[in-house]
Amino acid sequence: MGAGSPVSTPDSLGEEFPSCSPGRGGSDCRDMDTPGGHLKDLQQAVLMARERVYHAGSATPLESLELPGGGMDLWVKREDLGPIKAYKWRGSYNRMAMLGKKEAGHGVVTASAGNHGQGVALAARRLGIKARIHMPCTTPRVKVQAVREHGGGQVEIIQAGDSYDEAVQSAHADVASSGAVYIHAYDDLDVMAGQGRIGDEVVLSGRGPFDVALLQLGGGGMAAAVGCWLKTYWPELRVIGVEGDGQASMQAALEADRPVPLETLDIFCDGTAVRQAGALPFAVCRETLVRIVTVSNSEVSRAMRFLWEGLRCISEPSGAMGVAAAWKLRKELAGCRVLTILSGANIDFHQLGVIAQSFGASGRERRVLRIRISEQPGSMLDLLDHGFEGLDIIDFQYGKQDKGFGWPVIGVAASDGSDLE
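Above: the chain's sequence. Below: its structure in token form.
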């Protein structure tokens, strides 16, 4: 990382995360200034977006969530209650509302794995602008259908490739041949400014100041803008970025001192599955984040359950990442007032069922194992006696197919997921 960057990744919060106490208000952000003025430009853009964004939707509520065991004052910004069930409408509408007549006449093009596409579709319909949205063939069906519904006759969906990167390539080829305006999902100042309205709503809610903000990172636009705006009013706020295991593109950028592509990408949290962090979000995040924490798919799934049980809301995986981080850091965050953002709720019903099945109605985690054993008397009993201590067997399937070996399928459950590793 570059000199002077405050970002670090300690195993525990340690000295960089002293015990929480009420934050101090104020608006002096001189210590946040960068040579390129990224933070000042973003602050001004977030302010100017105030007039445009709310033509497309209303402010979303901030609600308290109690995790098992308590210990922290946790709040959730309910972006799942916005017009597209996710926060992306804010940036898309702000950017497209700024287009001149000539630009709007050429139409817009974007690439999206779902939520950004819905935002562009909503803006296209409200503003009367034609839009072509390139989406990976792997995009959840609920998100593709939602783009059609929000955009109506103003939108054409083009499904291209199996990944977001391939959809981006297709979209850029479209721009080159058509002259349309490309609406970036996160690496654009005015798109980021629209997302930054979330931070202003938090400030205006009267629930602050907060000690900690846990903000999920995909390309980084939302976390950069919201973190920048919150620190404008609460300079003592500690902004922690949250990334999924297998998709930590901002962490990779900070380590390399520039955005770099990940070789592999986990897509369980599809809303944050971005191979390379944005250049402008990176420039801001390196100044505003105190650290990045990664969360596993298991931890995210547990957080989805917490949100259902505590707020009766259904979150998509990426939407629950902040709550997952709060649970993971619950000991360090004891006594803190903590902000998270439920960034979206666009999840296929089938995927929701799979997640619920994997983690069980009782809240315990489950695994299904296929284990090779010898077809000798006592081998199954030996496996059961010594292989599953402390676990509950919830399913058992076995059929003899070989004289020498068997492959029983055994389902097990445990309250602590580490027992299943």
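Confidence is low (pLDDT under 50) at residues 1-19, 21-36.
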